Every structure is written in structure tokens, then in C-alpha cells.
């Protein structure tokens, strides 16, 4: 038996399991016991860190369901700052009757009728958000409408969440060192039991087998209980196969830009100016002496000072000056030695994408501009420079997926397209905790009610809010139906009529999935690709899971993989997108797959949908039947899609299937790719 002192947590409300401290021998012994599905080590997961809603065509004046205030979003994150105006409870009635949760109050934290529940999962700690991340994500999803919001004058305007009338339940799973699997599962267990409608989780780690992955396990049980889990796709891009949170029963969200970006000017003593990227809230007062980090070596450190690494700079040479560094850092070393500002150089061919805040005035410059600054430093005995306060500019190239957003293909199930879609996640202004500062770094004294940060952590709550918005109009829709509505009504990021190449957009759907969310269109999608627990179980059977594992995981004693009828090929999972890959060991050649799908009519009773296909000579797509005739709302019709792809050594080919009745366009990407 398990010693009581070894037990860390018991999961019993929504699924069965426990966390315990075990030796290697105990782990191996426990793994062999009948009734044990899996034993896996608890990992530390990491956080995936105004104008955005307007940019995607979701204005403040959009039509709202009268029951929006009954929708509860469960935020699994770093906590929350309840004093923020984004969470003011004025005008709110009591929590919805379905709410069964609690508020773990502490000496400096209380819930209200906006933040209706709060729990934490780390002994001896409290609920206050000392990082700001959880406050930012919660207000992005469901923050109140707050006028005159800005970061010290930057991005001034009205801040609001996507569903500003919705309620928030907070589950603090993340601390300074990360977010433990033990706590993540405990939060899922509680959130499901408490009665949340949507779970938003901007956290992730390296992709692992579905039932060795705490987030996938928790999301599976939330799906069983009619709760959609919205996940961040990760910040490990642009390398291929880096996408995380890839379970087919959850929503994986990439990060894309909006039409506002932040530019930080640099002026040199020779009169030349350059424009870099950062969020600099400091006003420039005068020109300062300018020195290159490579010329300011701390000779006792033994390290290279060109990149201004820890301990590398000589305080006497840098104090009171602006320092130019090869590479981008947090700026701790520059601040330590008394620099007043710093220019930083990106690696060659790296774009100026997201802007970040630093401890001191900073402008991050392209490699080419940085080379000119270094040339200037070497051309004069008295180089000088200054960094201006950041200003907002229009970005006409948006939307595009940001460089850091993790890319597909799906590393666990290659023939399920991930990420599912993209949402704004770059330079997002939202509420911030006043228990921390702009950067959270030592020496930063800027305490602010709003902050600007970037990450798939920021795109995830946009999608969570969009899901909650759809849920408010369609309370009985399943998680899969809501997910389908979001995916099939996405705005196109890149037209498949223009064929892809390495030169112009090699990662395409592996970057943005089905496209950019459009919550208004998602409320009325026309058709949905629905799925439930049994569909995912059959797909898992087809992926090699055995009956014993499935019975214990699902809690269904009748679950079985023994009969062929209960095994579903991954291509037959009723998913709103289509993906096929080359056979292992055969990266080139022709691949043919048949996909079986079923759509449910959620539009007009009497309707006729015609199939339209956009393909190419390398990608042939045939649909049978080509016309779907519905007589009633709720009626289902099945069809087959045959895809034949001529694959090359690397890259992807994409096309589109659109079902249209003249008013609805139900759009699904079709992607073929080689396995690397």
C-alpha cells in the first residue's frame, strides 16, 4: 500500500488517480498493478506567454447573448489581481446556479461576483498573481470594459475581454519555477467539478504520449464533461514539429500579429536614425556616450563581453553610457554596471517581430542596422546616441503568424493538423498585477495596471473567449461542435489557390492551422463536424492503445478495441481539417487517403450545400457526394473525401474543401506533407 506520507494529491472528483513521491522501484512495481493505466513523472510546464478584438472584426458593439453572464471560464494560470478594474464586480448579480466551486480566500485576496471562484495548488502560498501572466490572460478572455487603459501612455484606448460579462474562476497552478503536472491535474479535477464551461490553459511542455501528458489527460476528462479546453500551441517556433498541446479533443492556438506594432527609434551622434523593436516607456533626455560591449570587457570575468552576458562588462567603462550588444538579452548585465540604455542586435535574417519590455531603455535592431551602429562607434573617438520612447505604428502586413509561435506537423499524430487555428498573440495590452512590475526584474520600479506582452499565452485566451461567445448562444453544443464552428469559419491567412513554396510560405497551415478566428461567423457556422468520447476512443484504438488502458481512462467498462468496427483510422476521426503524410521511410512519391466525415446541420432547416475544392496538380481532392441536401436542423449527412498527393522530399502541399449553401462557407484545409 502507498504510505500516507508519500501521497501528494488524490484526484477523485472528475477522474481517478493520485500523485505520490515514489522511488524508481516503487514506480516500476506500481506500473505492473492491475488497474493502473500509466505512471509518469510530474513535469514542470512553462507559461506560453484592446486593439486585438477590433482587428479580428469583433467590435465592442457586437450582439451578445442574454446568458453571457452565466458562462464561466476556468483560467488555469498564475493567479489573478482582483483589484484590477478589469475584474470589478459592479453590476454583476450572484454567480450562476450551476456554480459549485469555492473561493480559497487568504488575508489579501477575496472573490466577488466577477471572479466567482479561486483555488491554489501549492502549500503555503496565496492566490495573488505576482507574475502578471494570469491577470493578463484572464482579462483578455473576460475582462470588463475599461476606458483610458494604456501602458504608461502606450497603446492607449479601451481594454476589454472577448466576453466581458462572463464570470471567471481562477486556478493557480503556476509558480516561479513553473507549473507542475500534479497541480495541473488537480485544477482540471476541480474545474470540471466546479461547473466551468470553458477551460483556458496557456501552459505547455514537450509533446508526449496522450496518456502520459497531464494536460491531454485533463482535457480528455473535461471533454467527457462537455467542457472545451483551449490551449496555447507553444513558443518554440519557427522550427517544424514544435507544436505542443496536440490532443485532438482540445483546441491548439497559434499566435499571430495585429495591425499595430511598436517601434523604438535610435539616434546617433552623426545624425543617423534607426528604428528597432521594443517597448520602451522611458523618455529620452539627452545624448549619451555610446560604447560597444566588446570594447568594455570585464577582464576578471573570463567571458565574452560582445553579447553583454552576465558578469562580462566593466562597470567603469559602461557606467552612464549607452552600450551596444551583439545579441538580445533581458538587460540585467547592462543595468548591473550602470548603463543608461542599450541597443541589441538580432541574428542575421531574423525579423523584427514582437516587441518586449526591458529593465532600461532598449531598442532591438536588425543585424544590418546593428552593423552600421558598430561602424559608427569605430569611426569616432566620441560616439554618442539616444533611444526614444516607443511609439505605435500601423502594420499593414498583418495578420501573420509570429516567428516564435510553434509549428506543426503534429509530432504525436502526424495526420491530425495542429495547430488548429491562430488568434492575436503579439503586443497585446491587457490587465496586469500590481504585485509585480512591468518586467518583474529586480530594479524595475514601474508598477502598472496594464501591460503589453506577447506569446501563444496571449492568443489562447482570445480563442477561449471566442469559444465562450459561441457557447453563450449554443449552450448545448459539444466541445467538438464549438471547436468545429471556430475552425471552419476562420478567416483565411493564405489562399491555397496560390501554391506554396519554401520561398513564400513554407510552413503555411503548420503555422496557422485553419486560419484566424472570427467569433461572429462562428456563432452561425451552418454545419459542424461533431465528435464525442466514443469517436476519440475509436481513434485511440486505431493508434494502438489497448482495451485495458481505454476502459480505465474513460471509466467505461465496455470500451474495447477487440472488434474491427471499434477501431477508427485517424483519417476517419470527424475532424474539421484534413491531413495526410508520407509513409515512413518514403518521403517522396504518391500518397492516397480516403477520409470519412459527417456534418450536422445547425443552420437552416431546408438547405443544400455544394462542395467546392481548391487544389492543384500535386494535390487531387475528390468529394462524394458533391451535394448535401438537408431537411431539418440537427440532421446529419456523411461524405467521403479522397485525397491523392504527389509529395516531394520536403515541405507541404495544401488545398481547401468548402461546403457552401450560398450564405455559409464551411471551410476546411487539406494538407499533405512529408515525414522528416
Automatic annotation (TrEMBL):
Organism: Linum tenue
Family designation: Belongs to the peptidase S8 family.
NADP recorded as keyword: no
InterPro entries to which the protein is assigned, alphabetical: Peptidase_S8/S53_dom, Peptidase_S8/S53_dom_sf, Peptidase_S8_Ser-AS, Peptidase_S8_subtilisin-rel, Peptidases_S8_3, S8pro/Inhibitor_I9, S8pro/Inhibitor_I9_sf, SBT
The Peptidase S8/S53 domain, residue ranges: 69-498
Active site location: 77 (charge relay system), 133 (charge relay system), 457 (charge relay system)
Matches recorded under CDD domains: PA_subtilisin_like (cd02120), Peptidases_S8_3 (cd04852)
One cellular component (GO) term of this entry: extracellular region
Keyword terms, alphabetized: Hydrolase, Protease, Secreted, Serine protease, Signal
GO molecular function list: serine-type endopeptidase activity
Domain Inhibitor I9: 4-48
UniProt name for this protein: Cucumisin
Localisation per UniProt entry: Secreted
One Pfam short name: Inhibitor_I9
Domain of life where this protein originates: Eukaryota
GO process annotations (BP): proteolysis; response to symbiotic bacterium
Record flagged with keyword Secreted: yes
Sequence ranges assigned to domain Subtilisin-like protease fibronectin type-III in this UniProt record: 572-671
PANTHER family referenced in this protein's UniProt entry, alphabetically: PROPROTEIN CONVERTASE SUBTILISIN/KEXIN (PTHR10795)
Amino acid at each position: 500500500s502507498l504510505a500516507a506520507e508519500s501521497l501528494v494529491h488524490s484526484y477523485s472528483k472528475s477522474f481517478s488517480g493520485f500523485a505520490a513521491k515514489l522511488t524508481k522501484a516503487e514506480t516500476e512495481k506500481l506500473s505492473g498493478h492491475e488497474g493502473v493505466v500509466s505512471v509518469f513523472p510530474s513535469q514542470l510546464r512553462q507559461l506560453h506567454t484592446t486593439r486585438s478584438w477590433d482587428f479580428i472584426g469583433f467590435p465592442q458593439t457586437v450582439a451578445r447573448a442574454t446568458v453571457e453572464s452565466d458562462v464561466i471560464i476556468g483560467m488555469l494560470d498564475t493567479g489573478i489581481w482582483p483589484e484590477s478594474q478589469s475584474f470589478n464586480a459592479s453590476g454583476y448579480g450572484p454567480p450562476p446556479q450551476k456554480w459549485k466551486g469555492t473561493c480559497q480566500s487568504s488575508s489579501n485576496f477575496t472573490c466577488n461576483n466577477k471572479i466567482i471562484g479561486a483555488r491554489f495548488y501549492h502549500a503555503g502560498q496565496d492566490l495573488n498573481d505576482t507574475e502578471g501572466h494570469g491577470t493578463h490572460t484572464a482579462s483578455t478572455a473576460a475582462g470588463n470594459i475599461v476606458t483610458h487603459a494604456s501602458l504608461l501612455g502606450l497603446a492607449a484606448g479601451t481594454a476589454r475581454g472577448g466576453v466581458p460579462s462572463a464570470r471567471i474562476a481562477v486556478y493557480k497552478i503556476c509558480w516561479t519555477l513553473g507549473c507542475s503536472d500534479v497541480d495541473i491535474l488537480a485544477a482540471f479535477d476541480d474545474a470540471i467539478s466546479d461547473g466551468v464551461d470553458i477551460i483556458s490553459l496557456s501552459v505547455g511542455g514537450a509533446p508526449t504520449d496522450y496518456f502520459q501528458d497531464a494536460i491531454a489527460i485533463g482535457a480528455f476528462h473535461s471533454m467527457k464533461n462537455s467542457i472545451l479546453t483551449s490551449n496555447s500551441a507553444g513558443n518554440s517556433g519557427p522550427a517544424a514539429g514544435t507544436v505542443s498541446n496536440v490532443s485532438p479533443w482540445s483546441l491548439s492556438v497559434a499566435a499571430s500579429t495585429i495591425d499595430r506594432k511598436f517601434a523604438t527609434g535610435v539616434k546617433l551622434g552623426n545624425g543617423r536614425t534607426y528604428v528597432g523593436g521594443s517597448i520602451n516607456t522611458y523618455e529620452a533626455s539627452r545624448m549619451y556616450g555610446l560604447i560597444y560591449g566588446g570594447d568594455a570587457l570585464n577582464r576578471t570575468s573570463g567571458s565574452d563581453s560582445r553579447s553583454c552576458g552576465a558578469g562580462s562588462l566593466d562597470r567603469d567603462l559602461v557606467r552612464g553610457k549607452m552600450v551596444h550588444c551583439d545579441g538580445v538579452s533581458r538587460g540585467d548585465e547592462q543595468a548591473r554596471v550602470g548603463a543608461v540604455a542599450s541597443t541589441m542586435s538580432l541574428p542575421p535574417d531574423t525579423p523584427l517581430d514582437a516587441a518586449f519590455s526591458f529593465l532600461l531603455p532598449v531598442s532591438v535592431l536588425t543585424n544590418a542596422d546593428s552593423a552600421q551602429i558598430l561602424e559608427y562607434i569605430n569611426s569616432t573617438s566620441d560616439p554618442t546616441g539616444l533611444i526614444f520612447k516607443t511609439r505605435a505604428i500601423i502594420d499593414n502586413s498583418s495578420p501573420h503568424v509570429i516567428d516564435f509561435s510553434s509549428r506543426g506537423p503534429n509530432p504525436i499524430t502526424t495526420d491530425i493538423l495542429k495547430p488548429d487555428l491562430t488568434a492575436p498573440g503579439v503586443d497585446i495590452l491587457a490587465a496586469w498585477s500590481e504585485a509585480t512590475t512591468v518586467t518583474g526584474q529586480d530594479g524595475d520600479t514601474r508598477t502598472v495596471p496594464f501591460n503589453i506582452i506577447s506569446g501563444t499565452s496571449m492568443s489562447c485566451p482570445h480563442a477561449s473567449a471566442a469559444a465562450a461567445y459561441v457557447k453563450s448562444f449554443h449552450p448545448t453544443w459539444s466541445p467538438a461542435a464549438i471547436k468545429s464552428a471556430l475552425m471552419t469559419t476562420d478567416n483565411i491567412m493564405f489562399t491555397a489557390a496560390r501554391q506554396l513554396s519554401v520561398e513564400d510560405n513554407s510552413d503555411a497551415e503548420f503555422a496557422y492551422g485553419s486560419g484566424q478566428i472570427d467569433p461572429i461567423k462562428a456563432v452561425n457556422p451552418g454545419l459542424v463536424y461533431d465528435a464525442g468520447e466514443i469517436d476519440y476512443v475509436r481513434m485511440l484504438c486505431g493508434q494502438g492503445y489497448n482495451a485495458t488502458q481505454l476502459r480505465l481512462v474513460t471509466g467505461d467498462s465496455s470500451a474495447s478495441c477487440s472488434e474491427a468496427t471499434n477501431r477508427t483510422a485517424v483519417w476517419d476521426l470527424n475532424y474539421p481539417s484534413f491531413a495526410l503524410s508520407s509513409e515512413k521511410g518514403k518521403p517522396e512519391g504518391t500518397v492516397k487517403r480516403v477520409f470519412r466525415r459527417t456534418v450536422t446541420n445547425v443552420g437552416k432547416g431546408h438547405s443544400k450545400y455544394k462542395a467546392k475544392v481548391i487544389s492543384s496538380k500535386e494535390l487531387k481532392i475528390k468529394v462524394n457526394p458533391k451535394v448535401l441536401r438537408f431537411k431539418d436542423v440537427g440532421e446529419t449527412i456523411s461524405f467521403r473525401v479522397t485525397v491523392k498527393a504527389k509529395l516531394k522530399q520536403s515541405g507541404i502541399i495544401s488545398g481547401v474543401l468548402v461546403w457552401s449553401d450560398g450564405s455559409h462557407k464551411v471551410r476546411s484545409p487539406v494538407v499533405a506533407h512529408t515525414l522528416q
